[in-house]
Amino acid sequence: MFESAELTHVLDKDTFREEEQKLREALLAAQFEVVERKTFPVIMLVAGVDGAGKGQAIQRLYEWLDPHHLRTHAYADPDEHERTRPRLWRYWRDLPPKGEFAIVFGPWYNQPLRERIFETIDDAEFERELEAINRFELMLANEGALILKFWFHLSAAQQKRRLKKIKATPGGGRHVLEEWSNITRHGRIVVDGQKMARRTSTGHAPWVVIPSGNGRYRDIAMGRTILEALQKRLHTQAGPAFAPAPAVIASPDRKTVLDALDLSRTATDRVYHKTLESQQNRLAELVDSQAFANRGLLLVFEGVDAAGKGGTIRRVTAALDPRRFRVYPIAAPSDEELARPYLWRFWRHVPRLGNVAVFDRSWYGRVLVERVEELCDEAEWLRAYSEINDFERQLAASGMVVVKFWLAISHEEQLRRFKDREVIAFKKYKVTPDDWRNRQKWDQYKYAVGDMIDRTSTQAAPWTLIEAEDKHYGRLKVLKTVCERVEAAL
Fold it and tell me: Tens digits of per-residue pLDDT, 237-261?
């Protein structure tokens, strides 16, 4: 969930001052409306890596909001009084009343996360703790609470620079003593933190990841996200329980992982044909091996229209025995499929061990086209992230190697390919009015893809982003990735 947060996000001073003035006024107006109505409490959870400026962000909120209706509850290790009660007792004790705002610094996630990082509990116990938290938050949401969960993130390099700077300031040494010791655990914190965030990012209480490399960007992103959540809850007509918190950061620059791709990468014809054959042979040997009989391969291809999914799939399946693979082109669901949960039609096509299934588009339609085109409501696509992660985790646990590709091309290259298809007789059918209409929503799809990758790229089923501007380069990268993943599994 932290891929987009590791990109460089910067906000200059002048832009910050301009944004801050408008944001403060709007936040205060929204806060006073919450206070006057007294229909729901606001609970803001603050977590993240050490040195990310969580304390500074909280201080900023005290500047922007009326402190009379804002209280911070900071939690360290349980004291003797708290250890004699259930783990969540101290959080129940401090829940705010309707119309009030609470910041939970050191939230109910901290203790189980710390125990997992230091390996005092195992994965099974960690899962049980997270499930208990999910039930707790569901109860709060059903009672009308607006729950905002912020993870403040830094890359390992950013964290090291930040802590060095803090340590060099007068009195900063004591402040970073514990944090400095956690630099070596950054990787483990990120791995377990992502696991925690994916398991507990729900439709009623999703996590929002705040890039914290630049303090001004961090604070504006946090403030905007809070403002959008308050305005949405205040203006909903269906009641507080039906207006979930935002799952998407209100980012000043709206960068996603797609912005980090270098679409200029190419492969020459000579390299392409030579490498294509060798990688196809490599894949054929792997899938035909005796060890693969206890494995299965499930390939997912997603991408914008004209990104080259079909051509890439043909190069992959050319290496496979036709008796042992099947390609599933996914279109709009039928009436039979609409009458059942959306994952039903994909469960039907899970291959047997020793076989391969290729999905040309997939279950990710729920968080892409159905989200953008508003074919399902927000609560449905928000909860789909965790449902999809659970589905893929079950596939991996059964022996399936799940390999997921997003094929990326530029807006300009898509237009060129559309025009080419219109003049080639056997490709005219590939361009439909829907394709042209979807181009008008390019940015909406881009942000939906960024959220999808952040929230569903897991250890069991990571996403691989393919620079597909050059078809030759993209096809080779796909084949190499499939071979590497199958080899690693075997």
Answer: 544 444 556 667 778 888 889 999 9
Cα(475)–Cα(463) distance, integer angstroms:
16
Give the model confidence (pLDDT) of 223-239 as tens digits.
Answer: 999 999 999 999 875 44
- 86-98: burial string, b at 16+ Cβ within 10 Å, e else: ebeebbeeeebeb
Neighbour order of strands in the sheet with 400-408: 325-329, 356-360, 296-303, 400-408, 463-467
The CATH architecture of the domain made up of 4-255 is 3-Layer(aba) Sandwich (3.40)
Q: At what angle do helices 215-235 and 13-37 cross, to 10 degrees?
A: 30
Q: Which segments of 116-213 are extended strands (E)? A: 146-153, 207-211
58 by Cβ neighbours in 10 Å (0-12 / 13-18 / 19+) ranks as middle
Residue spans per domain, the chain? 4-255, 259-489
Check if 4-255 and 259-489 are the same fold: yes
Q: pLDDT tens digit string along 279-297?
A: 999 999 999 999 999 999 9
Residues 173, 69: contact at Cβ < 8 Å?
A: no
Residue 278: half-sphere exposure toward Cβ, Cα within 13 Å: 9
Q: What is the largest CA-CA distance in the chain?
A: 78
Does CATH number 1.10.10.10 belong to domain 259-489? no
Euclidean distance between CA atoms 269 and 385, whole angstroms: 39
pTM above 0.70, yes or no: yes
DSSP-derived 3-state class of residue 201: coil
Q: Is 70 helix (H, G, I), strand (E, B) or coil?
A: strand
Q: Which residues pair with 299 in a beta bridge?
A: 358, 403
Question: Which is nearest to 70 in space by CA: 18, 39, 105?
Answer: 105
Q: What are phi and psi of 32, to 5 degrees?
A: -65, -35
Strands 296-303 and 146-153: unpaired
